[in-house]
Amino acid sequence: MPATATHTADVLVIGWGLAGLVAAGEAVAAGKRVVVIDQEPRSNLGGQAWWSFGGLFFIDSPEQRRFGITDSLELARQDWFGTAGFDRDEDAWPRRWAEAYLHFAHQEKRAWLREKGVGFFPVVGWAERGGYTATGPGNSVPRFHITWGTGPGLVAPFQAALEQAEADGRLTVLPRHRVTALVDVDGVVTGARGDVLAPSGAARGVATSRETVGEFEIAAGATIVSSGGIGGNHDLVRANWPARLGTAPETMITGVPAYVDGSMHAVTAAAGARLINGDRMWHYVEGIQNWNPVWPEHGIRILPGPSSVWLDATGARLPVPLFPGFDTLGTLAHLRATGHDHSWFVLSQRIIEKEFTLSGSEQNPDLTGKDVRLLAKTRLGKGAGGPVQAFMDQGADFVVRDTLDELIAGMQALPGGDVLDPAQVRLEVESRDREVDNDFTKDAQIAMLRSARAYRGDKLIRTATPHRILDPKNGPLIAVKLHVLTRKSLGGIETDLSGRALGADGSPIPGLYAAGEASGFGGGGVHGYRALEGTFVGGCLFSGRIAGRAAAAAV
């Protein structure tokens, strides 16, 4: 094996996702020499954030005010803490991070991004609507701001800063460097060592080999771990699956590339860092198999409007308030109790045209490409958008038929469809349809749908006018088989408000910092048990900025 390659830096950043890019940029801006490493080829610069929808959580933003939304720090705090449900001793730092992040989202966050050239789609989305009481989980108002350019648009300014620093000789990027250990000298982390992997020309997101061609060691005054979570590693997901969510699914699809493997968690723990809240995780129940996959078991999440009828695998309608887009983990827990790994949406062509958006930068060419003409056609025109239509035409989970009997037969023909009760499906859909003939109803989903349409943004581009799904003029009928889609780790490396990794006794480990999903987006779990959405890439921005500044100040 070749001799070990050695490098030195003031600040070492492990992982070049959004948090790592931000941290590296802050350290360079402070005049420090920075090395950034990652186990993947350079085509993956930007990490998981590049694939994201780019949703950002702001409080009392100009976009909200233009749509008549009254928001405040107090209301957002009520929603965040009601959603997080902090109840553990180890939630002490996550609580502090939550308070700090709320102030960031209310004050500096938007202006900071605007200074970097990041823009936002004018219509604010309403994610995680809750449907409980005022102190329960969910967003009381729309807060989901879509980045103009989606994930790539959010990554771009931080990537540009990295590349400029690299060109200036102030920063070094080392692809295909996989850390196997953090270097510890008398209790101080002084860098990292590991394997150099074989070069790869693989496209972004495609799984790569782990063939080793050398070793490396990097000495650094401060080391920042920003290596992401565990969502691409189903074994780790199952190992950490909490009993409160039922049993782990036998079959899942994957919402992140295979390199989101959680490997740095064990490495960081071996250096003395404390991992907390590993049983808190964020997986979606509206996953569909990608007809054109990039990574293994590649799934896409439907970002649904509130009108589709949601049935479990047997055909029974989900209980109040588990409607599309209302309570992700509440729905996951309910569905896990059914004993089946899938569920169903039943809807009309009219609903899919207005209410179906697919998560991911590559599934939204209008927003990602900043194409105003395509945006108008896709969001306001007739017919389903191109990416949605592609799934209708080629997706393994879509059934499109003219009559309910034909639709049910198509559902039964898919794997797992044998447990579907046709009489129950008919009862649920026909009963729901009878409730839309009046402006008042006892059906809570229809009532919430009408409430949603009181918000101009929803009425304009997000929610269909209430109608009978079985009326042929609204057809054809559509059924979508839904899978559990792995995505985010809500726990991770415990950190203080300077991003310093903490040991078992609560003391900072000298020289070691953490940011992004590796740190539970701050503190080891800033979201608690549940998230409000738009807070994942935002958490990477915030924790990366804090860790980068603190690490630079310490060396």
TrEMBL record:
Gene3D superfamilies membership: FAD/NAD(P)-binding domain, Succinate dehydrogenase/fumarate reductase flavoprotein, catalytic domain
Domain FAD-dependent oxidoreductase 2 FAD-binding: 10-537
Cross-referenced InterPro entries: FAD-dep_OxRdtase_2_FAD-bd, FAD/NAD-bd_sf, KsdD_DH, Succ_DH/fumarate_Rdtase_cat_sf
SUPFAM superfamilies xrefs: FAD/NAD(P)-binding domain
A Pfam cross-reference name: FAD_binding_2
MF GO annotations: steroid dehydrogenase activity, acting on the CH-CH group of donors
Keyword Hydrolase: no
The enzyme's E.C. designation: 1.3.99.-
PANTHER family assigned: 3-KETOSTEROID-DELTA-1-DEHYDROGENASE, KSDD-LIKE STEROID DEHYDROGENASE RV0785
Protein name per the record: KsdD-like steroid dehydrogenase
Organism listed in the record: Microbacterium terrae
Lineage of producing organism: Bacteria, Bacillati, Actinomycetota, Actinomycetes, Micrococcales
